[in-house]
Amino acid sequence: MAFLRLSGWEQAQMALLAGDASTRCYLRLTGGPDHQRAILMDADPQTGDTQHAFVQIAGYLTAAGFSAPRIFAADIAQGFVLLEDYGDGLFAKILAYAPAQEAVLYRAAADCLAALHRQPAAPGLLPASADVMAKLIDPAFEWYAAKATSENMAKAKIATVALLGASLRRHASQCSVTVLRDFHAENLIWLPERTGICRVGLLDFQDAVVGHPAYDLVSLTRDARRDLGPGVAALTTQHYLSQSPVEPAPFLDATAVLSVQRNLRILGIFVRLAFEAGKTRYLDLLPRVWDHMLYDLAHPDLSDIARVITDNLPAPDSKLLTKLKAACPQTPTP
Predict the structure, then answer these.
(1) What is residue 288's DSSP assignment?
(2) Which of 81, 61, 277 is nearest to 188 (CA)?
């Protein structure tokens, strides 16, 4: 590969790593210059999944004192980025065998978010306004509802977007901080040899926007991929609030409405991944996503949205999951 030759890594050994919900491919390189390791991130430029944003935001985070991977080399036009290898200490992997560490890791993640929110927002990011966020739930209807039922959901979609937009404007209109958007246990790496906020290695931040401070805390505490231990979500939120100038009650209102927005969108995104990319493992996560959404739909100010959603969208029970899996293209899940 010409990129590796020009970067001085052509002699390195390569091993494919597990991918994520994107179209990117990751390779671990060993035996590089001075026996270094690195990660080669490869995104096909034709997909529009450009690496430019990753490089830009990594530079912002590093300059602000956070642990974002160092960039060793990049060819943006070809979609290649060679970056620092943080190892295999994903929060999710650590907690699978050391669940007693959960409170410690989540407290560190909250420290990281609080510190990030004390920084000026990264330049050049798009604002995640209430109207933009409301429209981002389209996949819930275009994919989840469309594959789950034959009912016409046009009116339900219009009503949900309108009601959600109004709730977002009331409770979560503030666009003031860098929002990484996928701040959860499979994108955070524990670096215990470092200190302070640098113990939390950050990944998958190329879709960052300027948005509300509660959004990434929602990503962390309403995780689509794992259940948190009893009380951990509340303790993590309290720890964040202890370091933030925000008023707790309005912040918790914002948390509820942003959770509904995020989890509605995820319902559709996960079904799209199953049908378009053969990643059927994401279907098994739908019940947890649904439960997160229902939990926050219980907020008193979201009763109208709750009624529209529960009257129109079917719950992802075992019967529906079986139906969705049977309808998916027979492509092996990576």
Answers:
(1) H
(2) 61
Per DSSP (E only), the strands in the chain are: 13-16, 25-30, 38-42, 71-75, 80-84, 177-179, 188-190, 200-202, 209-211
Contact 194, 67 (CB under 8 A): yes
Statement: residue 22 has pLDDT above 70: no
Which band of pLDDT confidence, cut at 50, 70 and 90, is reported for residue 334? Answer: very low
What the block records as the tokens of 186 is: 């499979």
Please name the residue that has the structure tokens 């505490």. Answer: 221
Helix (H) or strand (E) holding 164: helix 154-171
| Six token digits for residue 253 | 């209102």
Residues 110-124 as b/e (b if ≥16 CB within 10 A, e otherwise) read: bbbbbbbbeeebbee
Residue that is written with structure tokens 């378009």 in the block: 276
Query: What 3-state DSSP class applies to 15?
Result: strand
Per-residue pLDDT tens for 61-73? 999 999 999 999 9
Q: Does the structure show a pLDDT above 60 at 21? A: no
Domains, the chain, ordered by start = 9-84 (3.30.200.20), 91-327 (3.90.1200.10)
CA dist 2 → 5, 10, 80, 325 (Å): 5, 8, 11, 41
* Helix-helix angle 303-312:286-297, to 10 degrees: 150
